[in-house]
Automatic annotation (TrEMBL):
Pathway: Lipid metabolism; fatty acid beta-oxidation. Pfam families: ECH_1 (PF00378). It comes from Phanerochaete sordida. One of its GO terms (molecular function) is delta(3,5)-delta(2,4)-dienoyl-CoA isomerase activity. This is ClpP/crotonase. GO terms for biological process: fatty acid metabolic process. Belongs to the enoyl-CoA hydratase/isomerase family. It comes from the Eukaryota.
Length: 286
């Protein structure tokens, strides 16, 4: 385990438990409630990760043993910003603030490498916004989810209502959960498609399972994995033919990489292929 202090912030601890694999832990005790500064740091950390060519997979988790996140910290939310008194200008300022927050919470989706989120204990509100923006979600058997926002007088606005209907297989279930804010557990989350694996145990066990998968991903061609994530995201939001056109152009460029030959050679020789890191944009800074 190597600490990545170059990437860590006050409320986000980053380490490298395996080569090319990062573990990002939320460290805002007592309940990992997100306020604006916290999700701004979350955004910053993933933007930094996106410029690091050595990173091939990321696991997102909580550092707290009993829970993932209680959601948004609403303490002082009504007085967070000194918006204009004029209703029109205030509406514009509020829209800009929400858009900024949406971008921050969706940082894992923008990250070019796969992000696996490992959830346990309480995972309320903003936790689902974040989880639905990740590529893979593993849940400990003790997890308790809730789309909590209606209980505090608003519609979930940072990603859940945009992404969860495309993640889950049941339109009815998503709407019921969003309208009622009732808790649901790992088994129901698995049935609806929010999570892909339930791990017996708690925080340590689900993080270990996520790290195992991230380590496996990190052994693959980074060009192939990066392309797969981009094409899958495009597929979610476009028609089949549009996505076929997109991947044809994408692979027209990416198939020129020597990674394809290295992967085939490794398969024929029955030994792991060795792939170079992704390139780094010359102007990018960690």
């Amino acid at each position: 385990m190597t600490d990545r202090n170059d990437l860590s912030t006050r409320w986000m601890k980053v380490s490298e438990p395996e080569p090319h694999v990062l573990l990002v832990e939320i460290v805002r005790a007592p309940v990992n409630a997100f306020h604006e500064a916290c999700w701004t740091e979350f955004d910053l950390v993933f933007d930094k990760i996106s410029t690091d060519p050595s990173v091939r997979a990321v696991v997102l988790a909580s550092s707290l043993p009993k829970l993932f996140s209680a959601g948004i910290d609403f303490t002082g939310m009504d007085s967070t910003h000194a918006f204009d008194a004029d209703p029109g200008r205030r509406a514009q300022q509020t829209r800009q603030w929400i858009a900024h927050s949406q971008r921050a919470v969706g940082a894992a989706e923008r990250c070019p490498v796969p992000v696996i989120v490992a959830v346990h204990g309480v995972a309320y509100g903003l936790a689902i916004d974040i989880a639905s923006a990740c590529d893979v979600c593993y849940a400990a058997a003790d997890v308790r989810f809730s789309v909590k926002e209606v209980d505090i007088g608003l519609a979930a606005g940072l990603g859940t209502l945009a992404r969860l209907p495309k993640v889950a297989g049941s339109r009815s279930a998503v709407r019921e959960l969003a309208f009622t804010a009732r808790e649901f557990g790992a088994a129901e989350a698995l049935r609806m498609g929010l999570v892909s694996r339930i791990v017996s145990g708690g925080r340590d066990e689900v993080v270990a399972a996520a790290l195992d998968t991230a380590t496996l991903i990190a052994q693959k061609s980074p060009i192939a994995v990066l392309g797969t994530k981009r094409v899958l995201l495009h597929s979610r939001d476009h028609t089949v033919q549009s996505n076929l056109n997109y991947v044809a152009v994408w692979n027209g460029a990416m198939l020129q990489s020597p990674d394809k030959s290295a992967a085939l050679k490794g398969a024929l020789e029955r030994k792991p292929a060795i792939f170079p890191n992704l390139g780094k944009f010359p102007g990018a800074k960690l």
